[in-house]
From TrEMBL:
Keywords (A to Z) from UniProt: Phosphoprotein
Residue intervals of the PAS domain: 165-235
The keyword 4Fe-4S is annotated on this UniProt entry: no
The EAL domain, residue ranges: 479-733
Modification 4-aspartylphosphate occurs at: 81
GO BP term (any one): regulation of DNA-templated transcription
GO molecular function: catalytic activity
InterPro entries, per database record: Biofilm_reg_signaling, CheY-like_superfamily, EAL_dom, EAL_sf, GGDEF_dom, Nucleotide_cyclase, PAS, PAS-like_dom_sf
CDD domains reported for this sequence: EAL (cd01948), GGDEF (cd01949), PAS (cd00130)
SUPFAM superfamilies cross-referenced by the UniProt entry: CheY-like (SSF52172), EAL domain-like (SSF141868), Nucleotide cyclase (SSF55073), PYP-like sensor domain (PAS domain) (SSF55785)
Residue stretches making up the Response regulatory domain: 32-146
Protein's name in the database: Response regulator receiver modulated diguanylate cyclase/phosphodiesterase
The GGDEF domain, residue ranges: 337-470
Amino acid sequence: MDGMFTDDSSAIEITTGGNAAPRYLTTENSPRLLLVDDEPRLLSSLCALLKDRGYQMLTAACGAETIELLNKLQFDLVLLDLRLPDIGGHEIMDFINAKGIDTKVIVLSGDTGIEAAIGALKRGAYDYLRKPYTREELLKTIDNALQQRRLESENRSIASRLESSEKLYRYLVDSSPDIIYTLDQEGRFTFVNDRVQQLLGYGPKDLVGRHYSVLVHDEDIERARYVFNERRVGERASRNVELRLKSLTGSDQERTFDNTLMTISFNSMGMYSLGKEVVDRKFFGTYGVARDISDRKRAEELISYQAYHDILTDLPNRILFKDRLGLAVIQARRNTSELAVMFVDLDRFKLVNDTLGHVKGDELLQQVAERLRNCLRRGDTLARIGGDEFTVVLPELRDRQDAEIIADKFLDSLRQPFTLDSKEVHISASIGIAVYPSDGESIDELLRHADVAMYNVKAQGKNAHSFYESSMLDASYQKVALEQSLRRALEQGELEMYYQPQVDVLTGEIVGAEGLMRWNHPERGLLTAGEFLPFAEENGLMVPISDWMLGALCRDLLQWNAAGGESIQLSLNISPHYLEHGGFYDKICGTLTRFGVSPSQIEIEITENVCIRNPQYAIEQLNKLCQLGVSIAIDDFGTGYSSLSYLHRFPVHTVKIDQSFVKEIQRENGHFPVILAIISIASGLGLKLVAEGVETKVQAHYLEKSGCKTMQGFLYYKPLSHTQFLELLREKRAISA
């Protein structure tokens, strides 16, 4: 781009040839403007308008030229047209912002749309003028923009000067929100700043000459003497002493001040005979700074309170409860008396929380806390330690009956319905009680044993209380030991798959088998799934156990196929937890691919309860399996809580009649409507039917006559180990050959 700057005070016209608009340059110290427009005549007109106003002016007719100039030179102001042939005005402003270029931008645009103006102002434009604009409007806008830029420059200069002198004035600047004062030797104010009036309502003139005691709270007068008569200097001077000061502002709240004091020393010099010099340090008064810390003290008190209390129920939390329990134990030990610790866990709270939502669950907890609090004696402590769990310490028991009375009051108070959003909600509680010193002498022992007693109540049916007994702990330890053993069983290969054949009663052929897990326990022998899978569910082991089971089944299927069992379909019972959280579909796909097993040989058994947990997700997962070629069976049909509408929605191929219904069949000429209804439903929906738990010929004949042709149970085969099942297949193959 052609152009140059000169020291000549007069404006110089610079042209680039052709139809380009002239560029005007003036002295270096005048404001530098960049005029951007793709219309040469408009650009020339703009230059002519601003020619005699003492500006340095450069012009650009396109976006690329504008950006080049912005990269090279510093401009005080850019007059920018939005519509340029190559790069739009908005993009140029984005470039200015991205590069952090220090300049003002006035947009001159013929665009009448509001979006263009909004876009420019959002990008930091100083102003937006629509063409055609008046000469006065343009000149005033330019003057205002340059004036603002000058003011900003001056402010930055002032800020820079203030920063350079910051060390000198740091103490006064930092102390400006505080009361600054000086006292004489008698404790009378000789100076106090205006802050005292803002905080306490006293004017500085009202205090000068008066004793400091007019401000100090009566209870803090003695401590104030050490603050306002401080004679020490340096590190030994009084610091961070808190005093309460009186206020004339009409507020009843006391204000607390943190006082930092200094002593001012004056040196006196006397005239003595030659060679003699005397230095006398004479105490003149006290200088101090008083900082208002009332809000901080209240915040500290609130934080301290919240640190020891449950915010939702306003009850003591675990920390405060343990502290009070510790004091109660010390007192009981000193007085050789008893105390009780209760562990209260609400029954059915999770159901309410999941049904009505967490907000209503919190409201329920608040109502529960209030009811329980009203059942206590003076001196008892009720605490919430998390979730729906509460603990209680009952000091100074006369006998165990005192604790039993309180526990009964708790249960009675919870029997009355709770009202949430005009709905009546019923809950109960399981309460475990441990007594000091017979059930433990430490805080942790008492809490642990009360917890064990509470879980014993849960196991016995809930809505009751129980005192701790040592036998409960033995049972608890057995559960823990079983869990640990189960984890080791996975690692050490103690789990094994058994298979119960499914028989076509018309042909006698084995058409399928249900996989059943067994545990070869090193001490307790062979355990069925019902003896250890509940513990796996409770302790988060269902996913790894199900992973193992899936791999074991596919390995066994390979050997069955080699023995002539290609037509056999294997049923695999899947936990709802595995279906929802185990990466279910991907794992089945990966395992089938890894072992080369056909999906048509696998049937996944689910219970009806899957329908009420997360039906939509379950349907999606099962549909994907069906597309893969895997069959789906409903296990224990008729014992769950699902509706028939879910049976229509789920991609089900097989219905299994639960053995509890089959056991009811005691005679062939009897009438068993549930069995007939299930068979009718399966027939109407075109589903396969399998009866479980068939043990007698009477049951088999009734089921066959009613339309069920596939059965499994002890009448035909007991569950067989993999080796036994493989041998059975080989025998069947030899017979058919």
